[in-house]
Amino acid sequence: MPQPQGAELAEVRARRERLREKYLRPRGARPSTTVQGVHHAAFICRDVEETIQFYQEFLGFPLVELVENRDYAGSSHFFFDIGNRNLLGFFDFPGHDHPPFTETIGGLQHLAISISPQQYDAARKRFDDAGFGYLGPDRGVEESMYFRDPNGLQLELYREALGVFVGTPLLDY
User: Fold this and answer.
1) Is residue 16 part of a domain?
2) N or C: which end of the chain has fewer CB within 10 A?
3) Maximum CA pair distance of the chain?
4) Residue 84 scores a pLDDT above 80
5) Cα distance between residue 123 and residue 115, in whole Å
6) What pTM was estimated for this model as a whole?
């Protein structure tokens, strides 16, 4: 996709700065959030077993539930433990022909998952040993690996603590 340049890029950056000035409050002046956190993020998969094999057997995210979707007969709804009491959920919709994944407005650009330095190194070795393709840290960000799951979802294994971005704590807890 073409990136803005010249005057267009300058205006995009100026707009971002205006938004920062208008909406971004200093840490001590921010109100507390009104929610407890993400219970689960739910995505659509094309094949339940392929998705389980990838997330549980390859990435090491334990499958913690597999039930029928209450809203669509025959559809599976299943969850993986991604740590810190967070779940990653999937649905399949047998009989429904879904188009391939695409990045679009309202869609997922990527899901960043916090990982310890030890687990990051182990994942990178596992990916390399399996010949599994990923981006990073070649993009100048030493803390990240980006890759796609069998459904086309882009994931990032991010070697920073929860609530930290590029070494800067964004949250107080």
Assistant:
1) no
2) N
3) 53
4) yes
5) 10
6) 0.85
